[in-house]
Structure formats: C-alpha cells, structure tokens
Here is the input.
Amino acid sequence: MAGLVAAARARQLGAAPAVLEKGDRPGGSMLLSSGVVWRHRSLEDFHEECPGGDLALQRRIVEELDDALDWLETLGAEPLTRETGNPLTVGRRYDTRVLTDVLVRAAGDVRLEEPFSEAGILATGGFGARLARERGLLLRANAWSEGDGLDYGVARGADVTAGLDEFYGRALPGRVGESEYVSAAQLYARHALVLDDEGRDLGEAAWHESDLVQRLPGGRAWYVVDARALRQSVRERTVADLVDVARAVGGEVRAAEELPFAIPESPKLAERPFVAVRVYAAVTHTVGGLRIDDRARVLDQGGRPVPGLLAAGADAGGIFAGGYGSGLAAALVFGRIAAETALN
Ligand SMILES: Cc1cc2nc3c(=O)[nH]c(=O)nc-3n(C[C@H](O)[C@H](O)[C@H](O)COP(=O)(O)OP(=O)(O)OC[C@H]3O[C@@H](n4cnc5c(N)ncnc54)[C@H](O)[C@@H]3O)c2cc1C
Here is the structure.
C-alpha cells in the first residue's frame, strides 16, 4: 500500500514516479486485508499499547491519519463505513479491491513483476514471508515481502529498530488460501482456554490477540471453548461460526474430551459441550524494520539520514514495537510523508 500511496501523492505534487512491484498484482497485503485503516484514540493510548515504538512516528499517525483518510476520498476511495466497530479505535473501512484500483489509477505508472534494483522510497512490506519461513510459521500475507527493502537499506548503512523479532500474528486453523486469510482467522482466544500440546494453560490474550499468537509454543495451540463461548460475538460473526469455518477449511475440530491430555479446570469451561480447535500462528506482517525519522528518512546508526533513501509501510520499523497497531494507517500516513519529503 505505502508504495502506491507515495506514488499517488508524488504524482499529485507534480512528479512522475514509477512503482516497481515484484508481484503479479498490485496492492500487496493491503488487497488481502480487512481494509480497516485505524488509529488509537490518542497518542497516549497508542504509546501505552506499543511502548517500544517511536513516539515521534506514532504522533504523526495520530495527528495525520484523519486528513490522510479524507485525501483518499478526494482520490475516489469512498469508505464502506466510517467507524471501526472497536471502541478503542477510530478509522474507516474500505473495500480493498476498490482502494487498490483507486490508488493504482492515482499512482499512474505501476510495473508488475519488476523487483526494484534502485529505489528512492522503500515500500516492500517488511519481511513477513522470510520470518514465517525461518520460524516454521504460517504466512497470512502477500508472498513477496521477503525483506528486500530492509536488506537494501541495511546495505546502504541504515540502522534497524526494536521489534525485529515481533510480528502481527493471527491464529489460523491451518494453511488456507489468500481469500480465506480474513474469514478463517480464529479470533476468539479471549473466550477460549488456550492450551499447549501438554495441556498447559497459555494464559490470557490482549484485545487484539496478537501477543498470544506470538508466544504459542512451536507456533500452535488448542483453543477450547464451551457452549456459552460458542454463542459469543466476534465482530459480525459468532465463535460457533468461526469454528465452523475452521472445520470447513479442513482444520482439526474435536470434542475436548478427545484431546490427548487432561483439560485443566477453568471458569471458561462451564457449559458443555466443550469443543477444541487446533490453531497455528500465522505471520501477517513484521514489526521491526528500518529506522526512519518522522519525515520518513531512513537513518543510520548515528541518527543521520542515509542520503536519498526513504521508507514507508512495514519496511519502516519502530512504530508498533511491543504491541499492535494499524499497518494500513502507517502505510498511508508515511507513504504520503515519504512523497512530500522526496519532493521538498
Ligand atoms: C489478511 C490480512 C488482514 C489485514 N487486516 C488489516 C486491517 O484491517 N487493518 C490494518 O491496518 N492492517 C491490516 N493488515 C495489514 C496490512 O495489510 C499491512 O500492514 C499493510 O498492507 C502494509 O503495507 P505495506 O505497503 O508496507 O505492504 P504491502 O501492502 O504488502 O505492499 C508491499 C508491496 O511490496 C511488494 N514487494 C515486495 N518485495 C518487493 C521488491 N523487491 N520489489 C518490488 N516490490 C516488492 C509486494 O509484492 C507488495 O505488493 C492485514 C493484512 C492481512 C494480510
């Protein structure tokens, strides 16, 4: 997303940028996403949620996201809704196909299946594919974000941020196709007793559940729910619906009594039947990356800008370290900032 946004903004400012896209389609992970572009309600909330993140970068997202969303509308991207459905956040939700088409049109010159060799603005989406492969985890993102931007920046003297071992994680019931990345996510750890392969309780998850997914031993767990939990709502569906999706995509769903260990006592298991769903940690995007300043300039270890090099989106780290935030918001805000810095 960040590359398309930067090009769209640069073209609007009178430049003639080209977006070099390694994949066979534009839109990156943004196209596969739920399309909710959001921010925490205040800078204080943001920093409390992502305490390892750079306050100056977080500030720009909080202060500029709303204007950036209005700017998307001037390009022709009408949101589906103007709220996120989560009282902790504010933002808008888009049809990601429409958003991609609008941005491609505004960016102008988008060349598919052309990995970059030289770049002024790095926006390759982080290194989720590489991290997933190295850790033996599932990937829930575009397949092309291998860390090419990170490697390019580091080779030119860039510093890296905190959070290189962190990722935005979601639990999936197994390997699923791209079109099921959103619908198959098992997003109900808060209603479940989460157990490892020995039946040990893995504890509670934060509201976004990404923290828990990152600490699943061996990248897997059992989510055990009771009849009451099955009736709980998760966004516009119920936990029972999500368990049905797990079953439909070939996931392992069983009566909890069939698990190969004794289930610990828990207030979460009160009303029978108890259902166990096998889940696997999936990498959606990475959190650490190239160090940038609040003008999207890539910095070296001395805090000096690396000449002629900017980064945006998940290639730029240090925004969400220690927590969870909107990767789409970071891509939108810093994509625009990168274009403005490049043309100043
Ligand atoms: C299923 C799913 C649901 C999500 N839901 C949300 C949500 O609701 N809200 C939210 O805020 N975030 C969400 N996200 C995360 C969000 O999509 C990402 O944070 C965001 O897309 C990151 O933007 P980006 O520009 O850094 O990367 P991308 O959008 O992935 O774009 C990076 C692009 O770089 C290309 N690329 C990689 N290497 C090269 C190279 N060497 N040369 C040229 N091109 C290259 C890739 O092919 C890709 O097109 C979701 C992600 C997924 C997968």
Observations:
- The chain is about 30% helix and 20% strand.
- The chain has a mean pLDDT of 97.
- The two ends are 22 Å apart (CA to CA).
- The CA atoms of residues 52 and 321 lie 5 Å apart.
